[in-house]
Amino acid sequence: YSIENPNLWPSEDGESFVIRFNTIKSEFGNSKLISPINGDECDGYFMVTRISSEEFNYIPHIKCFDGITNEISDNLVAHYTFDNNLFDNSLSNNEGLLSGSPVYENGMITFNDSSDMATFADISSISSQNYTYMFWLKHNSEPLGSWRNIVLKSPRNPGVWLYPGDNRVHFSPRHVNDTNYSANSTSELEEDVIYHVTIQSDWDGSNTVLKTFINGVLEAERNVAFEPVSTEESLIIGRREISFADLKIYDRILSEDEINFIYTVEKRNYNN
């Protein structure tokens, strides 16, 4: 479809554009997109990112949920596949910068020591109070006895680490009373096993709900009667024997059904 419509193509590497499913359906007859989970009819869009003048990355975003039908209602504000680059596969076009010597391999990016990281400086506009982050994560060692940074947007919104002693996920954003409240996984992440991790902060003006999901299952929920600290600092990921794949950031709270749906569809790519 995009080959037949070259007017869609962006002029710069790393830029993205959208093709909505309903646009394709209207031009190719009354076709349907069917959910692989329950057989419901769905909608959605392709996010297409230019890698070079001869290469494009096509990512389908299947939407089977009330009110979520296209890229506008989806509120995807950043998406990094780490496919040998730090291009943003969203319309925000926030390309990252590597430090140290991270390695791209097997569809993941691996950070081996404390100097290895990826920084996303242009991501400052993303909400630090209402968000959903999801990503595939693998760690490559026994507990180190010290904190390992996973995702950090200083001061801690969000702030995600692996526990020093047992490699549980520690999600602990800072609030305006200068206190860090945590929603920590019950699962201890095993070495060299790939997990799907989702964290959420939902501030409604008077209360914050923090949630942590592992492999599509809610493992921790905490209600906090304080506002999260708002921050426009850069986002940093990585450091110290951590591997990432497919980091998505949404400026909205995805439902538990959506999170489980994405995990179920994507896990065939990460069968350990």
Q: Low-confidence runs (pLDDT<50, min 5 residues)?
A: none
Assembly classification: single chain
Q: Would you tell me the structural class of the helices and strands?
A: mainly beta
Alpha carbon gap, first and last residue: 34 Å
Q: How much of the sequence is in beta strands?
A: 35-45%
Element string (H = helix, E = strand): EHEEEHEEEEEEEEEEEEEEH
Summarize this entry quickly.
This protein has 272 residues and is mainly beta. It has helices spanning 21-27, 71-74, 256-266; strands at 16-20, 33-34, 41-52, 55-63, 76-80, 97-99, 103-105, 108-111, 117-120, 131-139, 148-153, 159-162, 169-171, 195-203, 208-214, 217-224, 235-237, 242-250.
Give the arrangement of secondary structure elements.
Layout (H helix, E strand, L loop, with lengths): L15 E5 H7 L5 E2 L6 E12 L2 E9 L7 H4 L1 E5 L16 E3 L3 E3 L2 E4 L5 E4 L10 E9 L8 E6 L5 E4 L6 E3 L23 E9 L4 E7 L2 E8 L10 E3 L4 E9 L5 H11 L6
Antiparallel strand pairs: 1-3, 2-3, 3-4, 5-18, 6-9, 7-8, 8-18, 9-17, 10-14, 10-18, 11-12, 11-17, 12-13, 14-15, 15-16
